[in-house]
Amino acid sequence: MTVTAGQDSLDTRRTLKAAGKSYDYYSLEAFADSGYPEIRKLPYSLKVLLENLLRYEDGRTVTVDDVKALAQWVKDKKSSREIAYRPARVLMQDFTGVPAVVDLAAMRDAMTQLGGDPEKINPLSPVDLVIDHSVMVDAFGGPDSFRKNVELEFERNGERYEFLRWGSKAFRNFRVVPPGTGICHQVNLEHLAQTVWTKEEDGKTIAYPDTLVGTDSHTTMVNGMAVLGWGVGGIEAEAAMLGQPVSMLIPEVVGFKLTGKMPEGATATDLVLTVVQMLRKKGVVGKFVEFFGPGLNELPLADRATIANMAPEYGATCGFFPVDQECLNYLKLTGRDDDRIALVEEYAKAQGMWRDDAQELVFTDTLELDLGTVVPSLAGPKRPQDRVLLTEAAPEFAKAFKDLAGGVAPREVEVEGEDWKLSDGDVVIAAITSCTNTSNPYVLIAAGLVARNAAARGLTRKPWVKTSLAPGSQVVTDYLEKAGLQDDLDRLGFNLVGYGCTTCIGNSGPLDPHIAEAVEKGDLVVTSVLSGNRNFEGRVNPHVKANYLASPPLVVAYAIAGNLNVDLYKDPLGEDTDGNPVYLKDIWPTNHEIHEVVQASVSREMFQERYANVFEGPKEWQAVQTGGGLTYDWNDGSTYVQNPPYFQGMAMEPGELADITGARELAVLGDSITTDHISPAGSIKSDSPAGDYLRERQVRPVDFNAYGARRGNHEIMMRGTFANIRLKNEMVEGVTGGYTVHYPSGEQMPIYDAAMRYQAEGVPLVVIGGKEYGTGSSRDWAAKGTRLLGVGAVIVESFERIHRSNLVGMGVLPLQFTGSDNRESLGLKGTEMFDITGIADGITPRMDVPCRITYADGSVKEITLLCRIDTADEVDYYRHGGILQYVLRNIAKAA
Question: Which intervals hold domain Aconitase/3-isopropylmalate dehydratase large subunit alpha/beta/alpha (predicted)?
Fold first, then answer.
């Protein structure tokens, strides 16, 4: 089975030449000339979708009417049309990639059981998996921190790495970027992405826009260089790998006009935090955002990528920037082939995809920002959209402290073996971490210059601050060293700790035991400052209650200040060697100085050398041994990789749909429940169900690793579902963490234990939630764990896009309250029973679903829920019990 171009009944296939080579392509101009001139006013991002439909138009999965619906979009500025979209490729990181490869391996076993050929299970679209989420910050602040962390990484993850090496050999069209290379988004931006993709077909070279889906929500970063991509659940990514189109509604597109120029002292991080706040207020969930206007002339591509990276934080599907000269400059800088760069320019101009500020584009809605109004900012203490001006950071933290500390007065606690005390507000983690900012040399160089100037004045970090530098690629090390700034960062404790995602994903590593003990003893509200994009509760470190996002140079400044109560505008950071106060303004570099160092230190040759052998990896990776074979030889004793139960007893045809009757509530949750709350990625607590499982298998707590590293083992991930230490289940008053009450016994217990008890009793389950349920990373395990716990339906006020889709992909029914109904108006306490009917009669997209709630006193209330199975394809997925079962049956039948 090979996915090829469609029948081209609209006659749009043409030829163009670039750098002396000929390419076939599907011409938007030809389509416009055939009677649809209005498409020239489409946003650039929708032109990418239009080309995709033209290329795959076959009268079946993509029809002429689908293509025409995009032309009609210009008139209505929105559409209810469902389309089948096929991205060019798939990107994975190892946290989400390992379970995806586990599922592929399990599908090969299932194919064998169904009497089919296991070799039929292969990615049809190119797949790159970048191992970047497994390094933890155990060692820090020393010259050998990187070496120690690498040794621990390979020691902890040997089983996973053996499995991934097997996958890289067993599956066609599947490449693995080894650990220690960088984070997937930056490797994608600097090397993998091409802006215009090509493939050979019937003796012709076909050119088309580079597009992708990724198993990390920050896949959106590459939209900064005009590559349309966004995060999907691992489940959806697997289906895309196996040739299934991404079913989606033609989105609304919000135009974001940028004018002016960034002022002195403001960074790309400050800009993106401003954009996040504005777009969250605007409301762009499920929409594309496209940036336009003269302000783009002032934004280097690194800044654009920083803005695009945080699309999940402002709620959009993506934040798109069109092709222009700056895009070509970046392709040149990062070592792309000259022929490719020539093709990008010629293709974009031929397709009307080249940025032209004189071209009138149509958007669903617009908003505008003058770059000159951007000021230094942070975001926190719990959400990336909660921007705090740096001028107000100290008083705003004081307000947040009252809530976080429960109204108690500020405290301080002695630390064993130290001559200083730990206080509320102290910064115990200052992390320049990968993803959002380390792809941006301007903010990295700024951080180095702040460190240089601080060290020259005799300043250093406070002794209680755990500092780290985890770049997104090895190129960062090259230009920091060439500029001589790595030595300055080292002096302040920002030594290299690894290449990959660390603090953002919960891999910040443990605090010093004496500091952790002091935090627990005083119940202190200590803080972290990190240059990443995620600061949800319980994510960074279990001991840290307040987490703030900030630019890399501000991370350095707060490491020196040591406390969020310090006003960086008014208070000195410390004293110089002569006892004079030193303020932030004294050590902050000018924009001109930063620009000059970047120009002198970042070169094309650095990218070419670093990426020349990107798939080889360090000697530790090359030494990993693995067996061959079409199917994987599962090890029952492994605590990292296990054969999941999704296909057990699976028949060639799906069973009949059934109503959900007599269901109990497993949890009643509030607003903004994130995928971190549902499926934590951080450390595994010793006294948790997952900890019990590991101890029973003779794993020492020191070797537990993180949930994210163990995503290949469903037994652990089931136990981690709803186990976040900050989860507030309204069924259990005064208790945080993964607990619930089993009914009718009334016993309080861990959510996992209750779910298993309900399963043994044959009782179906529902989860109740509020608004924005499932925000955060594209966690397939937030849906997989929910299903394996026996939850048949999730009933909330609104869903985050990716998580809703993932629930459908796992055969969990996503339902939405209608009218004024919600958990509070209905008085839901967790003692009720639910009968959800109408499912057995058949499901249609977004249909009304009757629901009967029986209260503990015997009273009954009938309500109507909205079925959030949104498309016809999703109906099929649900009917088959999940998207993987649907795909597997189709492949088996076609074989």
Answer: 76-562
0.90 exceeded by the pTM? no
DSSP tag of 20:
T
Residues whose CB is less than 8 angstroms from the CB of residue 138 and which lie 6 or more positions away in sequence, other chains included: 148, 149, 152, 509, 510
Look-up of token digits 């489409």: 42
**Tell me, what's the pLDDT at 94?**
87
> Residue 187: which H helix or E strand, with range?
helix 184-187
Q: What is the CATH number of the domain that holds 531?
A: 3.30.499.10
C-beta of residue 397 within 8 angstroms of C-beta of residue 565: yes
- Write out the E strands in 172-252: 174-177, 196-201, 204-209, 211-214, 228-231, 246-249
Beta bridge partners, 548, equal: 529
Which CA distances in Å does 125 have to 90, 164, 312, 514, 784?
7, 18, 24, 50, 24
- CA-angle at 735, arms to 734 and 740, nearest 5°: 120
Three-state DSSP class for residue 653: coil
Helix (H), strand (E) counts: the chain: 31, 34
**Which residue in 705, 662, 660, 573 sits closest to 839, CA to CA?**
660
Structural domain count of the chain: 3
Burial tier of 59 (Cβ tally within 10 Å: 0-12, 13-18, 19+): exposed
Tokens of 732: 């259990």
Does residue 557 share a domain with residue 674?
A: no
Choose the final residue of a domain: 579, 602, 625.
602
Q: What is the structure's pLDDT at 4?
A: 56
Q: Measured over all CA atoms, what is the biggest interatomic distance in the chain, rounded to whole angstroms?
A: 82
Query: Given this model, what pLDDT does residue 683 score?
Result: 81
CB 242 within 8 A of CB 123: yes
CATH code at 792? 3.20.19.10
Q: Is the same domain home to 735 and 851?
A: yes
Residue 578 lies in a domain: yes
Residues 742 and 850 in one domain: yes
Judge whether residue 773 has pLDDT over 70. yes
Enclosing domain of residue 65 = 25-85
**Do residues 752 and 786 make contact, with C-beta atoms less than 8 angstroms apart?**
no
Residue 816: how many CA atoms within 13 Å on its side-chain side?
A: 19
Distance, in Å, from the CA atom of 744 to the CA atom of 752, rounded to the nearest integer, reads: 17
Query: At 778, is the pLDDT very low, low, confident or very high (cuts 50, 70, 90)?
Result: low
Residue type, 666: L
Q: Please report, for residues 253, 319, 699, the alpha-carbon distance to residue 289 in angstroms, rounded to integers and kept in the order given.
A: 6, 5, 47
Tell me whether residue 831 is in a domain.
Answer: yes
Three-state SS for 588-603 is CCCHHHHHHHHHHHCC
Query: What is the 3-class SS of 365-433, one letter each residue?
Result: EEEEEEHHHCCCEEECCCCCCCEEEHHHHHHHHHHHHHHHCCCCCCCEEECCCCCCEEECCEEEEEEEC
What pLDDT is recorded for position 3? 47
Residues 507 and 575 in one domain: yes
669 in the same domain as 553: no
Does residue 847 lie within any of the structural domains? yes
**Token couple for 98:** 């390992």
State what percent of residues in the chain have pLDDT above 90. 83
Domain boundary among 568, 584, 602: 602
Contact yes or no for 428/515 (Cβ under 8 A) = yes
In this model, does residue 408 exceed pLDDT 80?
Answer: yes
| Ordered alpha helix ranges (H), 551-625 | 552-561, 584-587, 591-601, 604-611, 619-622
Residues 420 and 557 in one domain: yes
Same structural domain, 461 and 529: yes
Among residues 285, 460, 298, the alpha carbon closest in space to that of 371 is found at 298
Q: Is a pLDDT exceeding 70 seen at residue 2?
A: no
CB 571 within 8 A of CB 400: no
Same domain for 873 and 747: yes
In angstroms, what is the C-alpha Rg of the chain?
27
User: Quick check: is 560 in a domain?
Assistant: yes
